[in-house]
Write a structure and sequence with these properties.
Order of helices and strands: EHEHEHEHHEHHEHHEHEH
Strand content: 15-25%
Radius of gyration: 17 Å
Distance between the termini: 12 Å
Largest sheet: 8 strands, parallel
Helix content: 25-40%
Structural class: alpha/beta
Number of helices: 11
Shape: globular
Length: 252
């Protein structure tokens, strides 16, 4: 059984009720490959999760953009994994570079979050990626391996984890890793999983790419051997997200 293509849409901190209804309407009317070809998950802001969950087509799923590192309680402004489960939200994005950079989330903290969310029964899109300075210094593989290690040290079951490689220098900048650059890092990540976790986990875990993915570049990126899908930012708010989902057909 090959790895099923995965396309995530991270809406980030965007949207009004009306805009969200419009995006959902576009998604609901889009013609995309069947669920056995591609898994589609969209991630609206917390305040719109229930609205999207209730109105989105049944073959698409919903993710939160973050959750707290342990059980709820006196943590003002946070949302717990238990709350997401209570809303019947199956997925959560953890460790996004914007949270690592802007909110100081360390790799260890992200690893703890991933472990807790999985233990509660959520599925996790775990984000890793290097900055431009790290890439130019030639330390890309060291950085993403270290970020992955902080997760691997805390979990034993990878079946509900999708690893999202997002080079920080390519997020929202219009700069995209070339297909060869993306494939190289995905290959190294899979090799790291094989050597440090297990060959089975390396073979079965989906490693997806994020960083200025759009309809124009998605097909050539999707054709790379170790690239199992996308985590899409800005383009997931636009009709072209449907075209990005269709790029899954390249893997058939």
């Amino acid at each position: 059984m090959g790895r099923k293509f995965f396309v995530g849409g991270n809406w980030k901190c965007n949207g009004t009720t009306e805009e969200v209804k419009k995006i959902v309407s576009t998604l609901n009317s889009g013609e995309v490959p069947s669920e056995d070809v591609v898994e589609v998950v969209v991630s609206p802001p917390f305040v719109f999760l229930s609205l999207v969950k209730a109105s989105l087509r049944p073959d698409f799923h919903v993710a939160a953009q973050n959750c707290w590192v342990k059980k709820g309680g006196a943590f003002t402004g946070e949302v717990s994994a238990e709350m997401l489960l209570n809303l019947d939200i199956p997925w959560v994005i953890l460790g996004h570079s914007e949270r690592r950079a802007l909110l100081g989330e360390s790799s260890e903290f992200v690893g703890d979050k991933v472990a807790y969310a999985l233990a509660q029964g959520l599925k996790v899109i775990a984000c890793i990626g290097e900055t431009l300075e790290q890439r130019e210094a030639g330390s890309t593989v060291d950085v993403v391996s270290s970020q992955t290690k902080a997760i691997a040290e805390r979990i034993s079951d990878w079946s509900n984890v999708v690893l999202a490689y997002e080079p920080v220098w390519a997020i929202g900048t219009g700069k995209v890793a070339t297909p060869a650059q993306a494939q190289e890092v995905h290959f190294e990540l899979r090799k790291w999983l094989k050597e440090n976790v297990s060959p089975q986990v390396a073979e079965s875990t989906r490693i997806i790419y994020g960083g200025s993915v759009n309809a124009a570049n998605s097909k050539v990126l999707a054709a790379q051997a170790d690239l199992d899908g996308f985590l899409v930012g800005g383009a997931s708010l636009k009709p072209e997200f449907i075209d990005i989902i269709k790029s899954a057909e390249v893997k058939k």
